[in-house]
Amino acid sequence: MSPESTGQNEHNLTAYRRGFRTWRGNRPFWAGLFTMLGGMPIAYFPYADLQLGNMTLAMSTTAGAGSLIIGVLLITLGLTMWFHSIVRVFAGVAAILLALISLPVANIGGFLIGFLFALVGGALSVSWAPGEPKADEETPQDASDPLPTAGRHPENMPAESVLHGATVPQQQVGDHDAASGHDGGTHRAG
């Protein structure tokens, strides 16, 4: 390609990364990730065997099925936060409740690792709010006018102001304002 070419010079990885960044920005991504990371140790530890030299330490408990259910539900809630973010508040509250239930049921919440991840993920999901779409830019203000016209009192504005493309003449400072009962800002002692 020549330097003058207008062809696409981006690498596919860069385009994929930009697309992923856009996808991630439209949903509670980190909340879902933390919730899924919290569900994994809660579901895994009751079925794991720890090898210490020649000794095998089995961590399976009578609540192994409960731990598996809590872990799978947390992973499902994390995926729900990603792919159906409209129910993010429900998913966050459910993740917090499941994290709290995992303390007595699932080996102290997956040895506190799963509990903390699920608790943080649920809190992030409840607190996440979608961003505001960018509004269309209004007509630019005159460069010599440092203050916008919307917040200023009409008496302090120039003789003519622009209002949505149409010029509107302002009152002259001595004209009588019938609606307010005073004339142009001067007070008369009477």
TrEMBL record:
Biased composition (Basic and acidic residues): 174-190
Annotated signal sequence range: none
InterPro entries tied to this protein: DUF6114
Keyword Transmembrane helix: yes
Keyword annotations from UniProtKB, A to Z: Membrane, Transmembrane, Transmembrane helix
RNA-binding among keywords: no
TM spans (from-to): 28-45, 57-79, 86-105
Highest taxon above the source species: Bacteria
Pfam families, A to Z: DUF6114
Region named Disordered: 130-190
Protein's UniProt name: Integral membrane protein
Organism of provenance: Streptomyces nanshensis
